[in-house]
Amino acid sequence: MYVGALELDVVLGDIRSLKEKRSAVRPVLAELRRRFEVTVAEAGHLDKHRRSLIGVAAVAADADHVRDLLDACERLVAGRPELELVSARRRWLGPHD
After folding, report:
1. What is the distance between the alpha carbons of residues 57 and 49, in angstroms, rounded to a whole number?
2. What does pTM read for this prediction?
3. Burial, 54: exposed, middle or buried (Cβ in 10 Å; 0-12, 13-18, 19+)?
4. DSSP symbols for 76-90
5. What are phi and psi for residue 81, nearest 5 degrees?
6. pLDDT by residue for the chain (97 residues), tens digit each?
């Protein structure tokens, strides 16, 4: 079993409230879940209007499959015009950990 976690630090556009932030981030989380069947949540910068830390996790029997899923999730977020991807960080857990 392989587990991959991806942290995506993003900056949002012209956001003035936490309510606007939720309205911008929620569709991204839903699309990641729907398209890739991964676990996803807003995991950081919860009190900042223009920043968000999106956490993505995937589990599979094959490490290449997990890597491909996380790559696709990162590309999707990086391609969203309303978001600017500041950084992406990955963590791995495999059968030998």
Report:
1. 24
2. 0.91
3. buried
4. HHHT-TTEEEEEEEE
5. -70, -25
6. 999 999 999 999 888 999 999 999 999 999 999 999 999 999 998 899 899 999 999 999 999 999 999 999 999 999 999 999 999 999 999 988 7
Q: How much helix, strand and coil, in percent to the nearest 5, is found in the chain?
A: 35, 40, 25
| Residue 24: closest CA among 6, 48, 57 | 48
**91: which 2 tokens?**
């963590």
- 């630090």: which residue's tokens? 9
Of residues 35, 44, 10, the one with CA closest to residue 24: 10
Round to the nearest angstrom and report the end-to-end CA distance of the chain.
11
* Structure tokens, 74: 């990162």
